[in-house]
Model the fold of this input.
Amino acid sequence: MKKLSAVGASLLTIFYFLFSVGLSPTAKAQNADAGVTFQDVTTKSGIHFTHNNGAFGKKFLPETVGPGVAFIDYDNDGWPDIFLENGSDWPGHVLKHTTPKLYHNNHDGTFTDVTHKAELDVEMYGIGVAVGDFDNDGDDDLFITAYGQNRLFHNNENGTFTEVTQKAGLSGVKEFSTSAAWVDYDKDGKLDLVVGNYVQWSPESDLYCTMDGKSKSYCTPESYKGTSVRLWHNNGKDRSGNVTFSDVTQKAGLGEPTSKTLGVAVLDYDNDGWPDLFFSNDTQPNKL
Done:
């Protein structure tokens, strides 16, 4: 009896130990649900940002799409900084000038607006942002999707950025771009770029939609034709030392013109070692 009692006591001690260190998934989940709370510290952190969609009464479709945001350690100090995309007023109806915002992490729970210092105070109708080191120099760069001209900003490794859209061969293509992702789709060691595009829209082709038959309302995506996503291949550096990109959308089999893409995700869904792409579309089937 003494031996059994000792064994019983030992098992009870072990069970108590296992339970107390959280090896019971159910208990761990319950404790987490009961103990984790969040507090809004936006103002206290020093982040003061208001998105400008440029609305002035015409109910333009891009006004319905919110801005993107990304964490980026732009100065490589080991602390994540914050980049917030922004829209702008429409031509002919400019009341204020707004730009993206870059907030530097002060390592104490607060952030400082360094947009001007980083030379990122560029006005555009920005929508999305993707962070990636496209030239393999060890510093993260920024690609911004927009209505109109998308933009690529190179990290100069000194706290500033330089726009290299034209040098990279990415200029001249003006679309209604929403999201983007960096992906080395051909596994050549260089980051390529996939861009999601929404619909074929412009102020000139804007349609009149109404809910009550009296006043204009925002049109739904069904009112406009879709458009293709775009895949840019990273060619590496040219003779001038500039990294350039080539449009390989059709060659890669991604030129489906009916998509109305809002989101892009990179994954290896079949575990074959090659990155695959998933596109979330609005009022159209999602595509893998």
